[in-house]
Design brief:
13% strand, four-stranded mixed sheet, 15 helices, alpha/beta
């Protein structure tokens, strides 16, 4: 699981941190942060793609922060701002910026700037309004932050003349400057271009290997596409394709039914609601083989699912039932069929008086984690499975015209977005320009328009990802927020 992966990384990092902080061991730090991991664990946000993605990315950046803590003599230390979505509603903290997403989760933003392991753990817990009482049982100094700094093992505070004489950077001045000056795109690129170029060059052989493996497997199995649910590193993706290649060599007969399908590497095995073959990255070949052997049964269930969608459409005046991977949780075919079947039975019993084909051209998606219907900016209705039929009827009638206008606007927006991506890629000689799923088309359009007004020679040959924060990924991709300054 993702938690297990993060824990292994932290164990490696924190074991070396012992050399710098004797007040807290690596195992103690992991135990101390356990409530935090339970609160922000991406697997708990399976039905909320945006929140899950933000937490995954923030955990990666937290791991990078802890790696810097353990580097001997590390001087170019920089404060790190992180954002997490927390499951529970806790009392607001006065030292943290909080907001609530549409799904009801609490968004917590805070900045880490301590060089001390214990102080960092306390900062994380306090910022997320999580209790620190359990740290007392670890036999370490669990006093409040200010008192923790006054212990014998506190970081050395040098006189200002020390930094003037040695030329080293004063961490307090760096922190004050970071708090005074907002990060700008140009300054961030100045500081991170060299690191990104180094990582990108190192990843180029693996990128070529990934493209080769993907092409060969797609051609050999006659697949429509091979995808990944998460932003795993290039090495990880190559490893997954090698595993699939070995299965093809060992059991070619079980893969005879995959022609024309899309394979998605994700957290669990099965068939998705969109009809894609899901291969769980934690599963062994035996589990994958079972999935391929069951494909004929999955295809039969998929036909029944399409028939069910058509019946629902008939009951709702011709409105089309769709499933959008980017906006909905990754459901299995069985889970989605049960959702449709329950919704259909409710509609059939209510016998709503929709005129046949009166809503043709409109679209709707079913959601199990909402209680009130809404209209998306792209024109599709977002209907809760528990929605009262009478409320559903009134809402669709009231919003039908607006939905049609939004659908027309969507078509124009998608064309504009693609044109701006192509123009930006060409102008800056980018190798690739893409966005995270949590970034909307409107945000991407705004970002690209402002980028085209700039002169950015740093970007030549780079992979640029439009996100919600600044980051250099492990394979050299540059992430910048869509609303950069």
């Amino acid at each position: 699981t993702f938690y297990y992966f993060i824990r292994l990384c932290l164990e490696k990092v924190l074991l070396q941190c012992i050399l710098q902080s004797r007040t807290l061991s690596a195992a103690d730090a992991i135990n101390a942060l356990r409530p935090f991991y339970f609160a922000v664990h991406p697997d708990f946000f399976g039905q909320h793609p945006k929140e899950r993605e933000v937490n995954e990315n923030s955990l990666k950046r937290l791991n990078g922060y802890l790696e810097n803590l353990q580097k001997p003599g590390f001087r170019s230390f920089k404060p790190t701002q992180l954002t997490f979505y927390v499951r529970e509603r806790e009392p607001n903290s006065s030292n943290v910026q909080e907001s609530f997403s549409a799904s009801g989760f609490r968004a917590v933003s805070f900045t880490l700037h301590s060089r001390d392991l214990l102080s960092t753990v306390l900062d994380i817990l306090n910022s997320c309004s999580l209790s620190t009482e359990h740290i007392q049982s670890l036999n370490v100094n669990s006093q409040p932050h200010k008192e923790a700094k006054s212990t014998v093992n506190r970081p050395i505070k040098w006189d200002k003349t020390y930094y003037s004489f040695t030329g080293f950077k004063d961490p307090e001045e760096e922190l004050e400057q970071a708090q005074r000056v907002e990060t700008t795109l140009i300054s961030w690129l100045d500081d991170n271009e060299a690191s990104a170029v180094k990582k990108l060059k190192k990843s180029l052989p693996l990128r070529k290997e990934l493209e080769r493996l993907k092409f060969e497997l797609s051609h050999q199995l006659q697949l429509s596409d091979i995808r990944w649910q998460r932003s795993w590193g290039i090495a990880h993706r190559c490893s997954q394709l090698h595993s699939l290649g070995r299965l093809v060599q060992q059991r070619p007969e079980v893969l005879k039914n995959v022609k024309g399908r899309t394979v998605v590497f994700t957290d669990r095995s099965g068939m998705s609601a969109a009809g894609h073959i899901m291969l769980g990255t934690m599963d062994v070949h035996h589990h994958w083989t079972k999935i391929f052997e069951r494909l004929p049964n999955y295809y039969k269930l998929q036909k029944r699912l399409l028939f069910l969608e058509d019946r629902i459409s008939q009951l709702l005046g011709g409105i089309q039932v769709i499933y959008i991977e980017e906006l909905q949780p990754l459901l299995t075919l069985e889970e989605y069929y049960e959702t449709l079947d329950s919704f259909y039975n409710k509609l059939h019993d209510s016998r709503l008086p929709f005129h046949p084909r009166s809503l043709r051209g409109l679209q709707m998606i079913l959601e199990s984690d909402r209680y009130a219907p809404s209209l998306h900016e792209f024109g599709h209705f977002m209907i809760p499975t528990v929605c009262d039929p009478a409320t559903l009827q009134w809402f669709i009638f009231a919003k039908a015209q607006e939905a049609r206008e939004n659908l027309k606007r969507k078509e124009k927006m998608m064309i504009t977005e693609k044109e701006l991506i192509d123009t930006s890629t060409e102008k800056f000689s980018l190798d690739r320009l893409y966005k995270e799923p949590s970034v909307s088309s409107a945000q991407m359009i705004d970002c690209c328009k402002r980028l085209l007004e700039e002169s950015l020679p740093y970007l030549q040959g780079m992979h640029l990802c439009i996100s919600h924060f600044y980051s250099v990924l492990q394979d050299g991709d540059l992430c910048i927020p869509w609303n950069w300054k």
